[in-house]
Write a structure and sequence with these properties.
Elements (H helix, E strand, L loop, with lengths): L11 H23 L4 H7 L2 H10 L1 H18 L2 H24 L16 H13 L6
Helix pairs in contact: 1-2, 1-3, 1-4, 3-4, 3-5, 4-5, 5-6
């Protein structure tokens, strides 16, 4: 079993897949800002590429996707737009994919389940907190 100090560099293919997911997420957010009638659906869907690449290819791909989408948002619209997009949509999606990866069975690694006892309830709370509407004032 590898220790943290023995980790290797991320695969360039994984980083490229992450960058493609970041491009997709950025285009969805940009489409939401340009199209007012369909903006809620596009903005809600902008987290999906980050979630999918994080679950399928791991944390390195998710980080690559978040950085790519933030950079594209800063270049195309503005740095403040990119900051809000990253803090509101992209980072929570990357964090949720990381938490979901923590709960995976380690049978593929040849060991017992890596899941800590309360991780599933924490993931459920995070999903409920992200998906619940904010109170109107």
């Amino acid at each position: 079993m590898k220790q943290d100090s023995e980790l290797t560099r991320p695969d360039p293919k994984t980083l490229a897949i992450g960058a493609l997911a970041g491009l997709t997420a950025a285009l969805l957010v940009l489409g939401a800002s340009m199209q007012p009638s369909f903006s809620a659906v596009l903005y809600a869907a902008s987290a999906l590429p980050i979630l999918l690449v994080g679950l399928g290819w791991g944390n390195a791909a998710a980080i690559s996707a978040v950085v790519t989408a933030a950079a594209l948002g800063a270049i195309v619209i503005s740095p403040s737009f990119a900051l809000v997009m990253t803090l509101v949509t992209l980072l929570p999606a990357g964090w949720l994919s990381h938490l979901a990866n923590l709960a995976r069975p380690a049978s593929e690694l040849g060991g017992p389940t890596i899941c800590s006892p309360g991780i599933r309830s924490r993931i459920s709370c995070c999903i409920c907190a992200v998906s619940s509407p904010s109170p109107s004032s």
